[in-house]
Structures are given as C-alpha cells and as structure tokens.
Write a structure and sequence with these properties.
- The relative contact order is 0.07.
- The chain starts with 5 loop residues before the first helix and ends with a helix.
- It has about 110 residues and is an all-alpha fold.
- The chain has helices spanning about 5-25, 30-35, 50-60, 70-75, 85-95, 100-105.
- The protein is built from six helices and no strands.
- Helix content is about 65%, strand content about 0%.
C-alpha cells in the first residue's frame, strides 16, 4: 500500500475508528450503558458506528422541540395559543415570509 493512497487513507481511518471503539469499550460505564441499550450486540463487537448511532438517537429525542403551543396549533389544537399569540401569528403570516401550508394550518385557529 502506497502512503497517501486511497487504500492507505481508508486503512488509517479504520484504525482510528477501532482505536475509538477500544477506548469506548474500556470505559466501564459506557460498556454497561451500551449493553443495556443494545443487548443483542456483544460488547466486544461494539463499534464507533454504534456509538455514533447512540449519540444520534439521544440527540433526536433529548433536544426535540415539537410540543410548543405553536406546534400544537399546527396540529389543530385551536386552544393552544392565547388571543395575543394568535394576533401576533396572523401579523407574522401576513408579512408573506412563511410557507403557504403553515398559513393554512394557522388560519383555521
């Protein structure tokens, strides 16, 4: 393999990924959490791909903001917004800077 070749770069990346996985497996708390979250995967087989998937799953749920009064309004809850909020929303939508499908959803409130 020639240094700097695509094969060499891929091998180096694989080596880095394995080192990362080894470090994660060596942290007992992480290993226990991984076993609890993914009991079907033996700890020795966990990889940095599994770690990346776990982080992505956490981020997708931990910082999820889809239950605000505005979100509930878009889902059809006509009581979720206060009268001043509804007026403000209509002024905002009247500015023409919002997608049409959202305007229709709020117009029904």
């Amino acid at each position: 393999m020639t240094p700097g070749s695509p094969d060499a770069k891929l091998a180096a990346l694989s080596s880095v990924r394995e080192q990362l996985a080894d470090k994660l497996r060596a942290i007992l708390e992480y290993a226990a959490l991984f076993r609890a979250a993914c009991p079907e995967i033996p700890s020795r087989d966990s990889s940095c791909v599994h770690a990346a998937n776990a982080i992505a799953a956490f981020e997708a749920t931990a910082w999820r903001f889809d239950d605000s009064p505005y979100d509930r309004c878009l889902r059809g809850d006509k009581q979720s917004l206060s009268p001043p909020a509804k007026r403000g929303l209509r002024v905002f939508y009247a500015s023409g800077k919002t997608p049409a499908h959202r305007k229709r959803a709020v117009a029904k409130t």
